[in-house]
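Hello again, I could really use a second opinion on something today. My current little project is about how a certain protein chain folds up. You're getting the sequence in one-letter code plus the fold written as tokens. Here's the protein in full, and shout if anything looks odd to you:
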Amino acid sequence: MSTPYVERGLTVMAWRISGAQGLNTIDVFWWDGSIGVGTVTITCFDRAWSAYFGAMGKTIRQFFAEADTDYLTTKLGLTTLLKCRKRDLAYLAKIIDAIKAELNREGAA
């Protein structure tokens, strides 16, 4: 049996966004791997979404700020484990728009 490899010292940036219109607190975890590789994990109330992006050519925050909301909603929202209804995808799109607004305020785009 092989021994698992644990890499320590990874840098993950965590954000908490409060006060977005009609949404509970949003927690966002950004991880940039090698250049153009990253992961985002989003939680809001009792839901969580995560996606890996392997060919961005920029940081995960820059990519997220510039990417189309529909693309991000599809990438984060459609999994084999979650039953996605239109209202679920609309809820996720609202969360993504709130995150993108914060990224634009920060100047990540």
